[in-house]
Write a structure and sequence with these properties.
It is a single chain. The protein is mostly helical. The protein folds into two domains: 32 residues, no CATH class; 39 residues, no CATH class. It is built from four helices and no strands. The longest helix has 16 residues. It is extended.
Length: 74
Amino acid sequence: MPAPRPFALLRPIGLVYRFAMEVDDDGLTRDRPCIVDGGEFTLRFGFVPTPFELRVPTIVHAFVKAAGAPGSRT
């Protein structure tokens, strides 16, 4: 088991070292799971985010096409 890190020291160190402040701000993800939900986005902008299963193949295809790799569809 790894030794506990002194997260309590991040805030005072963050006053002079910007990276320590950013790590301290990210502290919410240390003590509970991070749940990504599109509910607030949908309420604010009125449309549903694209599901993960559709996004990934579309992005991969776009990168392959942009790179001009052989076998890329046009």
